[in-house]
Give the backbone structure.
Amino acid sequence: MGAQMAERSYTGMRVLVVDDEARMIDFIRMNLQLEGFIVLEARNGVEALDMVRKHIPDLIILDVMMPQLDGFATLGMLREFSNIPVIILTAKGEEEDKVHGLELGADDYVTKPFGARELVSRVKAVLRRLQSTAEHGLAILKIDDRLSIDFNQREVIVQGQPIKLRPTEYRLLYHLIENVGWTVPHEQLLAKVWGYEYRDETHYVRLYVNYLREKIEEDPTKPKYILTERGIGYRFVDFRKSLTAGASTP
């Protein structure tokens, strides 16, 4: 029963396949669709980055050898604004490619040639790790001496006092902290918190970020937790390194 539920959880998840070989894309698409995935495609890195911004996939399968913008350059640019999981496709025996890809922020790699079962298994494994982290990795999270977040009760604790979050506030805060240290674009927050059909409604994000700041910030006009990256999105400060007061742009 548990295995069947896990299998169903992948249905409808979006995988972007980036490869300049049409036959390779067709092969990957066919096998992922059999598992319920929605498959998007791009033929080079430039197209891939555009697709990420427009469609916000759950995972990317990225070939290393491509024209215009190769896989490494694409991955480097992607990691400037997103931590969407990436599996890179490398040539057989190219150990340096594997290491370089992982250093740039890839989550896994598959060596060409590969079988359908191997690729699908790797895709599920990466998504399973992320899902497990999301479901079990957060309970009561201490940000600093002033602020803690209880994800089980969906409340923030400010100077020892619990404050309830509305469901949308909770989802927004959860997604920001899930991407701690990363700037999350407006459209990604809208898609994950409200739904894909709301990707152009940036005022929703601004409004609810203000709600959260009023609840968790000492001075909402000079936030030190939820920082604004103008024209891009929002970033929850990396408290793992230490909070940097005054580094925000309200």
In short: Residues 116-136 form the longest helix (21 residues).
